[in-house]
Input
Amino acid sequence: MFLSSDISFHIISLGCAKNLVDSERINGALMSAGFARAGDSNEADITIINTCGFINTAKEESIDVIFDALGGGVKKRKLKNFMENGRIVKKSFPVKVVAVGCLTQRYMEKMKEEIPELDFICGITDETFAGQVCSRFGITMEPGHGASRVPIISQAYSYIKISDGCSNNCSFCAIPLIRGPARSFSPELVLADASDAAAYGVKELIIIAQDIASYRWGDVGLAEIVGKITEIKGPEWIRLMYCHPNHIEETLIDCLANNEKVLKYIDIPFQHASGKVLKSMGRAGDGAKYIGLIEKLRERVPGIRIRSSFMVGYPGEDEGDFQALMEFLREARLDRVGAFIYSPEEGTRSFGLADRVPAREKRKRYNELMKLQKAISSQKLEKMIGADVRVILEERLDGSTFAGRSEYDAPEVDGIFYLTASGAGLNSIVRARVTGSSEYDLYGEMY
Ligand code: SF4
Output
């Protein structure tokens, strides 16, 4: 048997933040099993690709990365420690490429058929993954220094996934097909995860799931579990992402209003504002109802920033529906908005719907929506000039100039705050005065 201590691995994490959490669990599990981390897939003996299977573009990216890692099928071999009759000898170990995650979960048999070069295809991974890798490749585990989860990149923030799967079954979404119905994680598991992240010195914990507002473990709902997380020493910011608009309870709004550590920020994917389209999506609601929710949040949590995401080009979306969405955006004046073009996903309820919107029209609507939101964002950020905000410093650009994020910006999806902060350190949170703005970003100086 080969010895895990002499075998290195590298994880390529694709897709969303929830997948990144799974990748960090794989990281922790393999390190606990004695494997060594490699800097990149060229160095690694085993490359693991945690794939995304959500929409076509993500699937294509996953396939490209797999074929890249397979490097045209020519397998490198390396001499590795091998235990033979109680003696360690050197034996040739052919490097391995492993695919896991949402794409493999969704298309397991098809991938086995079409990409036989892959050494191991496994769906959504769990705590048995390290053992599966060992038995598959003839490796003996030598307990190492891992944890339940080890960050892939050290950064100022960490995602805390509080449940998996989704039971909302929106007509266009493949997630329930891939990850199954919603399953909340126990408070013990969530708090252990958050404490592990705190032990790594992160300043911000970002609460995620497919729909965090559906979290429930006995009498512990989202507000309660967030409250417990804020008691953990170390992290100063708790951010809430992915709240289904129909599941936002009073207790959550109280938590946002009264808990100092919980940022005045919330991400609510409304997806659309036309009652007809939302009904077809299986998401009860409409523009008027959502405006009511937004006004309530702004009244109860002064200064709250609201992020949302929308889909254009859903089957049956006519010009009137689209204009209803545009009118909603003009009235709502949301702080941060992402938009997606509808892509039919086999196995979803909307896949069979006729009345498809032509691709050119979809693109036109997407561009119009983003143009409108860009103007709104620009106006809102300009109004922040002169304001004081807290900023987390994430990248030193030179000497005392940093790129970071304000308390109103989530990583990877929102704006950047560029500031001068002499004497400040990376991953620290400082107070800054806004001196300038652009469509999406802010500029300022520490004070
Ligand atoms: S709430 Fe989100 S993850 Fe769940 S089915 Fe709807 S779109 Fe998919």
